[in-house]
Amino acid sequence: MMGRGNRSTRPSRLSVEPSTPKSNEFQFVYSPATSISSCMSSEVDTRCTSQVDPLFYSVVNHLQTPLCPLISSTTGLQHPEFPGTILAYHLLTSRQLDDLARHYHQIYPPVAATSYYPITIPPWVGASDESDVNLDTKRRRFGRFIGLRGCESPVQCDYNFDDDRMDTDPDVAIPCDPLPLPQCEPQQAAPPAEETEAEMLARMDREWQECLLHARQDSDAALRLKMNGF
């Protein structure tokens, strides 16, 4: 029998509880698939869009206006570089405008086909001052040729200036102080005389006969058009 002093004592066991994992307390404002850069770019785009001038969109729509191409009076073909939009018209180069003028016979000396178009313009191709005609003048003349508004030649206020000379001579100066026009006093219109009943009936009969005459002429013209002018 072993004595009290020789008895071996086992060390007491320490019970250690497993550590509880910390919960993830981060909250995502955006979905995990959305990158931070894309979120920032969308915010920048929204801010930039709100700062765009409202007139910008109207200008863009105007520049996108399509243009109806013209065809040659001799070949019936359109030029391959004819501008399809207002923007393309403003981007025409000097060489392209020269080719367009030749295609539509707006050259010097003029040929028979030059006058086959609704509008003719002062030619610069083949003219003695061809090298002096700048790009803006060429573009303005061609714009007037295809029927664009705002492409007319500047006109002096005293009505004594030659419009064709202005087209061909870029060095012609426009006076800044035109001669003042005479001021005319407004004239008071005389009160219309009251017509009698007989005059009113005569006027109504006259207007009715004129309407019948115009209607008869219009029907005759339509009939001649159907019969090829005979």
Describe the structure.
The chain has 230 residues and is mainly α. It has a domain at 86-168. It has seven helices and no strands. The termini are far apart.
Proportion of beta-strand residues: under 5%
Derived structural class: mainly alpha
Round the Cα radius of gyration to an integer and report it. 42 Å
Helix segment tally: 7
Q: Span between N and C termini?
A: 153 Å
Give the ordered list of helices and strands: HHHHHHH
Shape: flat
Gist?
With 230 residues, this protein is an all-alpha fold.
Task: Reconstruct the topology from this structure.
Blueprint: H1 36-50, H2 54-63, H3 86-90, H4 94-103, H5 135-145, H6 163-168, H7 197-226
Task: Looking at this protein, list some descriptive labels.
mainly alpha; 38% helix; flat; 230 residues
